[in-house]
């Protein structure tokens, strides 16, 4: 598993009646692959995993793996409250053909350090798939600390970290402590260029769902050391990237996907599509972005 590059956390596409819309899901996958992304992540926050049924998660994973057909790795996110459920999905992911796992700490229960490490190790022991730990204390209230990663470094299948602490210096802190033991991927769109310049290996991206070419261009330019060219795109992109750091990021990004022609705005309850001034604001942000879209 090469944990480097741009990994879209793709949205799950629905019809207006709430049923899965696989044709538009595949259309978006086509746009991601055409732009040159390096992997696909299913079932994250943007994927509305918490409102998908068991059968829908199975279908979505199976169909995505078949459609991508080995062009890039397909990563399944695991966000469960019970260890046995996380172990089940780790085993099922392998069976369905996924290439790796993105793993959150236990949901709902505020586990302590020993419990979180034990949970991660139990999932890792249940599968030989490579794992990226999702470290997001802002949204999920559990910080995976340096001390915890020292314990997890013993587990060879735990290979990468989605760095969403909102602390740019954590990239340097992790490098100083662990060298290249873990691949580090920025998980916050508005900090992506900063963390890539500081040595992050990749970007688990959100607005890539609507703007895949621009996202990949920024990553590639930084890898080539063309910082001024990357910065010009990033400055244009920032107002759009800020849609990723709002509680309604799913609705915001799905509306952006619809406006760029590679998605729809439909979400599943309890989420509702945007209305009124909030909708107008998001539409204006996306419209301005489209009007000033850089030529790549």
TrEMBL record:
SUPFAM superfamilies: Aldolase. Gene3D superfamilies: Aldolase class I. CDD domains: DHDPS-like (cd00408). One of its GO terms (molecular function) is 4-hydroxy-tetrahydrodipicolinate synthase activity. Coiled coil: none annotated. Keywords: Lyase. This is Dihydrodipicolinate synthase family protein. The lineage of its organism: Bacteria, Pseudomonadati, Bacteroidota, Cytophagia, Cytophagales.
